[in-house]
Design a protein that fits this description.
Elements: E1 18-19, E2 21-25, H1 27-30, H2 40-50, E3 54-55, E4 59-62, H3 68-78, E5 86-89, H4 93-98, H5 102-119, E6 127-130, H6 139-142, H7 148-168, E7 172-174, H8 177-180, H9 199-217
Parallel strand pairs: 1-3, 2-4, 2-5, 5-6, 6-7
Helix pairs in contact: 2-9, 3-5, 5-7
Amino acid sequence: MATIPDPSTTNPITGGSTFSYLALGDSYTIGEAVRQEESFPYQLQNLLKGKNIRVANPKIIAVTGWTTDELQAGIKKENLSGTYDLVTLLIGVNNQYRGYPLSTYRKEFSELLQKAIAFAGGDKRKVFVISIPDWGATPFGKNSGRDPKVIAAEIDSFNAANQEITVAAGVNYTNITAASRNATTDVALVASDGLHPSGKMYGQWADALLTKVADVLK
C-alpha cells in the first residue's frame, strides 16, 4: 500500500476532482491499535481511489475514550471553517461504557449530527452515520467482569437511539454492529489489544460504506 501523508498537514480540498473528508468519532475512527492506513476512514479513502474517486486524507477529529460531550468540545476546539464533501460520524461507545444516561446521549448525538450536516454544507446526502460496535464480543469484553449480554443490550439501546435520530434527520445509516459480534468466534477481527477492531473488521466497515459514498461523490 502506498505511503499515506500525515493528515495533519492536509487541508480540506473542496471542488474540483478531489473530495474532502471529515471523520468524527472516538477510538473506532482513529483506528486504535492498528496502523493509520488500516483505520476505516483511510481504507474507505483507498477503496474510493479504486473507483477513480479521489479523496484527500481524512481530517479526523477523534480521541480514544471520547464521549459525545467530549467530541463536541473537540470540534469546538478545532474551530473548523469551510465545508466537506464527505462526513462520517461514529460516537457513543464510551457513553455506554461509562454508564452515562441514554437520554443525554440522545440529546448530544442529535446535536452532533446537526453539526455534521452543517460541515457537509447542509447536504444530508454527504453525511454517513455508523452504528456502535459491540465491544462485549471481544476478549477484553469477555474478561471485563461485565455480562456480555448486558453490554449487548445496552449497545443495542444506544444504536436504536442513534438510528432513530439519523433516519429522522434524513441521513444515511450504516449498521455494522451485528457483524462486529462475529469477533466472538473470529479473533482476526480484533486488534492486538484485544479490544479494538482489526484492520480486517475496519475493512468490512469501509466496504459497507463504499457504494453509498461513491454514489454521492461520483
